[in-house]
Amino acid sequence: MITLRGLSATCTGPRFSPTGTVAGCASNDGTIYNECLWTIMVPRPDGPEWNGPTDCIPPEEPALPPPPKRPGAPNLRRNPPLPPFPDTPAGDPTCKHTGPSTQLPGNSGLSCNTQGACIDLDYDSSECYWRSGFLYCQACLVWPRAGSSCALSAASPIDYVCSGDELSSVLTSDGSSTSGGTSLLQPWQPQRRYCQLIRWGVDDMEPTEVLFSIKSGSARCTRRNNVTMTLEGLDAVCAAPRDNASGGAAGCQGNDNIDNECLWSMRLPRPGAQGWNGKNCLPAPPLASPPPPRVRRPANPSIRAPAAPPPAPSEPLTPAQGRSPPPKRRTPAAPGKRAPNAPPPPQPPVEGFYGFPFCACKKRSLKPTPYRLVYDSSTPLPALADGKERVRHCFHIQVVGCDSKAQCCGMGIKKIELSAENECRTSVKLALLAGRSYPWSFAQNDYNGETFTTFKLTGLGLEKPDVPDGMPLCIILTEPCSSLADFCYGGGDWCRFTFFSTDENCCPTGDLLASSDPTQVEVVDTAGGDVEVIDLRRRALLADRDAA
Predict the structure, then answer these.
(1) How do residues 57-75 score in pLDDT, each as one tens digit?
(2) Distances (CA, A) of 277 to 98, 145, 204, 273, 284
(3) 79 vs 76, 82, 85, CA distance in Å?
(4) Where is the Pherophorin domain positioned along the sequence (predicted)?
C-alpha cells in the first residue's frame, strides 16, 4: 500500500473470475498474470475527506421552469383519485438473530481486541431468499456495536474488510463459488454493513461457517492464543492470518506481506433451525426438487440375460413351468400415425473392473456413501498463445443420504481421481474445487500387462461438513485431450471416478455420463461387479495355491 496525493492506493495481483480465468483487461486471453490491479478510494470533492479547495466546483444549474400546462378538453369528468399507497413497513427487528455480546477492551494493543470491541453481527432472516434449490442469506458485520467500548470512529475507521481469505471459497451474487479474500471495502466506515452470501440446501439444517478478514491499524492480531468472544450469542474467533502456499499471509487477495489482517470465523445457524435465536421470517420454500438420478449397476459383460422370446403370432401360449410369460403385444398404431421408436438409453462402459482405483482399498461401492460426481457443462475458452484449444469442463459433487451406520457414510474427501487415457498427462492446465485451485498429478499403474493412467486431485483434506451439496469442480483441458471423450479412459461419454476418504479405507467408485442432456444424467455404481470380480480372483488364487 502506498499514498498518492494523500490517498491510499493498493496494488494487488489480478483477480480471477468464477470460471478460473484472469480478470484483467478485456483483451487478456487468460494467460497474462502480471496485470497489476490498482485500487484507490477517491473522496467526493466537497466531502469530509476532501483535502483541497471546494470553490472550483461549478454551481448547480437552476432547475428548468415547468412546461406550460396543456389545455384539457372541456366538460370532462375527472376520475376519482386513487387511494394512497400504504407506507413500506419497516424491517421487523425480531427477524434478526440476537443474543449477548462480549465486551472487550477497546485499547489493548491487539487488533483482535480492538476490532472485537467494535464489530456486531447483523443477521436478518427476512433478507433470505430461495434460488435454484438453495436458501441464501446475508451474513453481515457492522460497527460500532451499541453500548461497546469501541475506540474507532469516522476519523479513525477500520482500514478495510474482505470476504474470507485466499484459502477459503465465497459465493458471488449469482451463487457461484470463487476464491476468498475478495470484495474489498476500503476504508470501512462506521454504520456501513458489510455482507457476504451463505447458503443451505433444502434439507441441510447444520450451521455453516463464514469468514471475514479485517485490518485496523498496525498492531498484530493476537499474541499466542486466538481471541474468542460472543457476538449476538454466537461464538466468534479472531486469529492471525493463515499461511498461503508461498509462505505469505493468506488474507485479502494480493496482500501476502500484510500479517495483521485478522481472520474472523463464525458458525451461523440456519434461520429456524437449532441454534437460531429470533423470529423465523424465511420465505416459503420452493416445490420439492426432483429425485436424484437413479443409480444402476452395469451388467457383467460376460453374463448377459437371454433375449426375450418373440410374441406368438396368435393367442399367447401358456408359459412353461419356471419361465416367465412373453411380453404383451402392443396395439398397432393407425396407418400414418405410427410413433417413431424411442432412442435407446445411453449404455455404461462395457468394460467392468480393470483395477481402478489402483490401491488396496476394498470399500468401493457408491451406495453406502454420501457423494456422487455429476457432469454439468463443457465451455470452450480462448485458445492458448500456441493456438491450442482450451475447454473448461465442470461437474458438481452431489451429497445424498446414506445409512449413518455404514462405515463410509460419514467419510470426508482426501482426494478425487479420474481414470484417464495415457496420452493425456499434459492436457490439464487448471483444477478448481469450489473456486479454489488445488494441486493435481498423474500416476500410471500396470494391470494385466496393460498400463493405465489416473488423474488425481490431491490435498483436499475435507471433512463431511465441509462438503456442501453442489460443490463445483472444474478442470481446464487442452490438446491432445481437450474433450472428455478424449480424456476419460475408454472414450465415449463415460468417465470413471472415485472419492477417497481421509483414511483411504473408503473409495466409492462409479461412472458418470458426461452428457449435456439433463434427462440423461446418470451415475452408475461400478462396485457391485468389482467386488465380485475381486472375490472370484481371490478364490482362483486360493484354489491354485491349494492345488499346488
Answers:
(1) 777 766 667 766 655 545 5
(2) 6, 19, 18, 9, 19
(3) 9, 9, 17
(4) 356-508
DSSP class per residue in 244-287:
-TTSSB-SSTT-TT----EEEEEEEPPTTSTT--S---PPPP-P
Q: What CA–CA distances, in Å, run from 487 to 184, 375, 426, 514?
A: 39, 14, 11, 12
Task: Report the pLDDT value the prediction gives residue 58, as an integer from 0 to 100.
Answer: 79
Lowest mean pLDDT among 71-80, 185-194, 355-364, 468-477: 71-80
Cell match 478478514: residue?
213
| 238: enclosing H helix or E strand | strand 234-239
3-state secondary structure of 90: coil
pLDDT in tens, 257-270: 899 999 999 999 99
Q: What is the DSSP string of 21-54?
A: SB-S-TT--S-----PEEEE-PPPTTSTT--S-S
3-state SS of 432-469 is: EECCEECCEEEEEEEECCEEEEEEEECCCCECHHHCCC
What ranges do the domains of the chain cover? 1-43, 92-289, 371-536
Taking the complete model, does pTM exceed 0.85, yes or no? no
Q: Give the burial string for 526-544 (b: 16+ CB within 10 Å, else e).
A: bbbbbeebeeeeeeeeeee
How confident is residue 521, by pLDDT bands cut at 50, 70 and 90?
Answer: very low
What are the two backbone dihedrals, phi and then psi, of residue 229, each rounded to the nearest 5 degrees? -140, 180
| 3-class DSSP state of 540 | helix
Return the CATH fold of 371-536. Answer: Immunoglobulin-like (2.60.40)
Does residue 107 surpass a pLDDT of 80? Answer: no
Q: How far apart are CA 418 and CA 497, in angstroms?
A: 5
> Residue with C-alpha cell 458458525?
267
Upstream peptide bond of 241 is cis (omega within 30 degrees of 0): no
